Every structure is written in C-alpha cells, then in structure tokens.
Amino acid sequence: MIDQQTPLRGGAPRLPVRPRTGRFLVLAVVFVCAACGLVYELELVALASYLIGDSVTQASVVLSVMVFAMGIGSLLAKRLRTRAAVGFGLLEAALALVGGSSALILYASFAWLGESRYALVGFSLAIGILIGAEIPLLMTLIQRVDRQDAGGAVADLFAADYVGALVGGLAFPFLLLPMMGQLTGALFTGAVNAAAGLALVLWVFRRDLNPRSRLLLVVVNGVVIALLATASVLVDDFERAARRAVYGDEVRVAVRTGLQEIVLTGRGSGALDLYLDGRLRVSSRDEYRFHEALVHPAMKGAHRRVLILGGGDGLAAREVLRYPDVASVVVIELDPAVTRLARTDPALSRLNGRAFEDPRVTTVAADAFTWLRTSRDRFDVVVSDLPDPEITASTKLYSAEFYGLVAGALEPDGRLVVHAGPPSSRPTTFWTVEASVRAGGLATRPYGVGGRLIGFAAGPDRVAGSAEAPWDRGFVLAARKPVGNLGLDPGAPALRTLGERELTAGLSAVEKVRQRGVPPSTLVHPRY
After folding, report:
1. Mind listing the pLDDT tens digit for each residue in 211-258?
2. Cα 338 from Cα 200, distance rounded (Å)
3. Which residues contact 245 (CB under 8 A, 6 or more apart)?
4. Fewer CB within 10 A of the end CB, N or C, for the chain?
C-alpha cells in the first residue's frame, strides 16, 4: 500500500535524481541489504555449528526463528511508513550493529559463559525482525521515486533481493570466510550495510529529511560504523582473550583451516591437549588407554596391511607400528593440517612416536567415504578413528553404506574396528553404530573399556574437565566372517592398561546395556 501521507510525484518534494535513477539506486541498495542479510544468517549457522555442534539442528533453529521474526518485522514496519526515509536509515543502522556484532557476542558468550544457545536464538530473532522490516519501507520508497503498479514494484524488489541473497550466499564461504574469518567478516558486512542505507537516504531522499533527522541519521550511522571499525581493529586481541578463556593460558598452536579450528595446548612437561572445533580430542594424560583399546583387539590375526580412517594425530598409527610385521599403513585424514601438525609439532610428534616419519606410513588428504568408493586396495585391518557420530559432519561415516564400502576394502579374513561412543551414557548411539556395521554386511563383536577418558569426552563445547568426561568408551569389532573370541594377538606388544581380563570385562559391560531391535543409520535416514 502506498503511504497516503507521502504524495507521489508532484505532491512530494522533488527528488534530486531522475525517477529511473532513483529507482535503480533503491534496487541497488535492496541488492546490498539482501546480501548482507544472508551473510548474517549464514554466519549464525556456521558459528553455531562450530560452537554448539549438530549443524542440522542449528540451521533449523536459525532459519525457522529468523523467518518467523521477519513476519513480525514486516508488521512492525507499518508504523514507520509515514517517515519511510528516516525509518529506513535508522533500521539499517540497527541491523548493521546487531548483525555485525552478532558473531563477536556469540563467541564471547561461548568463551566466558560456556553457553551460546540463548544468544543464538536472540540474534536470530532480532536480525529476522530487522530484515523483515526492510521490504515494506523499501516498497514505500521505490513508489516514492517512480510510481508504478504494486505488482511491478514487488517483482522488482524481490528480484533484486533474491539476486543479492545469491551474491551474499556465495561471498560468505568463498570470499569473507577465507579472507577475513567469521568475526571480521561479520563486522565488515555490518559496516557495508550501514553505509549503503545511509548513502541511499542522504542522496536520494535528502529533501524528505529535516535538518534534525539528517543529523540524527549521520550521527547514528557514524557511531555504528565507528564501533564496527574499532571492533575489527581489536578483533585479534579479542580472539586471543577468548581463546585463553576456552583453552587456558597454555595455547601453543591455534590455526583455522578451511575445515576446522585446530588448537594445541600444553607447554613444558604439562599435559598436551588437542582440540578440533572447540572439542577436546586428545589428552596426553590418558589417550593411550583409548588407542590401545581401539587398535590392538583388531590386530589379532593377519595385519600386514592396515588402513586408518581419520587418526591424523598419528596416535592410532603409533599403536599399529608397534607390530614389527606390519608392512604398510595408510592414513586417510580429511584435513592435511592435522597430519602436518602431528608431524612437525615437537610435543605432538613425540606423543605419537614420530609415526609419520616411519617409511611404512602413507598419508592421504581425502574424505574417507569418497576415497573408499574409488580405491581398489584391500587391507587386513581397518581402524575407524573418526569423530563422534553425533557430530553432523561425521554422520555419513557411521552409516550402513559407509560400512558396506569398508567391507569391500577388507581381505576375506580382514577386520574392522570402530569407536562408537560411551555405551553407558549413550547406549542408543552405541547400538545404532553396531546395527549400522551389521547392515553393512559385517559380523560384529561389541566391547568397551572402563575408566575416565578425559581426552575423549563427548558432547558439545569445551568438554575437557573430568566432571563431564565419560566413564567408559565403546567399540565395535567386525569382520566379513564371524569374529570369534575377543583377544590380543600372540605377538602383541606389552600394553599399559589393556589385557585379556579387561577385554572380557568390557565385553560383559556392553552386553548389560544392549538394546535390541535398534535400526541402522543410513544416508537417507540418519539416526544419530
């Protein structure tokens, strides 16, 4: 509906540009605002997936809350149509401040409060309301500069909006993230957003503004841009402070690759901890207990050729190489930065026994699923040392289809071992993994190991302390033929914590929490 208090053409103050030029400029700002809005949306989804985990859930929360909030914003914008120009200028300032600072505040909430879910919902709601209020105001402005039927104006606005969303959606992963990172990228987007809104109002609609309104817009948008610029200058200091809050004062390596954030902590003779995307993956205090239980039961029998899926830290390879009759080890690690760190960092390479310097070891930077689909190699042992299945990116690597590929890579007497999470605290996940392995065509023998496993605590965010670490860890040993008795190879090296007694106890412990009839997880029906 056209604002009745702002007459068109002759009844309104004459614009300083021709109608066609004004229409083009309004649509150009629609394009820019749409691109910025989608960047805010994608930034919330990406950061929430990193901080909280389970990207499907986080994307659903952000998108559903934001779309709902856009409807609210559209209704609230009706009150601003009588002063559409100044309303739009102030609206873009608010959106620039909220959207531009959202990543910073979300990460601060995670670092110092340990909880970012409420901040995520709050920003999704606020940004959605502000984005939803844009279109009604822009509709009023475009009809202010060039009178046309409502259908044509809507078509033009949404065309510019959708094309801008496309550009913003592509710019986020291919330009902003690689060049600026999440925090600086969001701040930069906010500054562009504020500048575009202010420029449109001061250039095309300046005659609609009284001196007081013009000063208000310049001051508000100037303050917003100054705040965002100051934050971008200080963002490195903020990241260092937040990293200390999350990981402690002994951060020795912190690097953001195209796939994840890798942080290695610990100096001197203290414990060495490896975090991937904020989750503790390895602690030198007890990692040997996990890797002994993962590797050695699968090495009973032929083990000349071994395939390790994941395990870029080199710790599973260290255990495999303790068998002198192993002829070759292939490590498939998606992120080459992990294997590079495991090879070059003095403390981590010392922990893994300099496994990657052994000529028997070959590392391949590839997705395990894709690599298995194309490989024709066969192995005596396959060790699946992958992130937990409840992390969305890992779900396909715990599917029945994946285990079918692994079965095809095994020799007739070959064996697979999978780490499947703590059976006592997450029995459904554990038995879903076991059912998925069986659905892939393999016979299974589930087992577990007891005791606190600090370095492999499950769950979201910063789970590094003993209070939340699981008391056990579960594994599934599988083969193309019946597995037989669980045990160790006669040529097994001396182990620190694992023996026949521990394996027998672990086998009995998982049977006590057995869940029958659990369906497998598949690519089209993930169940984790």
Report:
1. 999 999 999 999 999 999 999 999 999 998 998 888 888 888 888 888
2. 47
3. 111, 112
4. N
What is the set of domains in the chain, with CATH numbers?
A: 9-246 (1.20.1250.20), 285-512 (3.40.50.150)
What residue type is 109 in one-letter code? S
Helix or strand or coil: residue 10?
Answer: helix
- Residues constituting the chain: 528
* 472 among annotated binding-site residues: no
Contacts of 55 (CB under 8 A, 6+ apart): 45, 48, 49, 392, 393
- 250 in a labelled binding site: no
pTM of the model: 0.83
For residue 187 the two structure tokens come to 């701040």
**pLDDT tens digits along 65-81:** 999 999 999 999 988 88
Q: Does the annotation flag 489 for ligand binding? A: no
List residues with catalytic annotation. Answer: 385
Residues of the chain with pLDDT under 50: 1-11, 455-468
Concatenated DSSP letters of 228-260: HHHHHHHHHHHHHHHHHHHH-S-EEEEEE-SS-
- 293 known member of a binding site: no
Separation CA 347–CA 268 (nearest Å) = 9
Name which of 165, 220, 175, 183 is nearest 198 in CA terms: 220
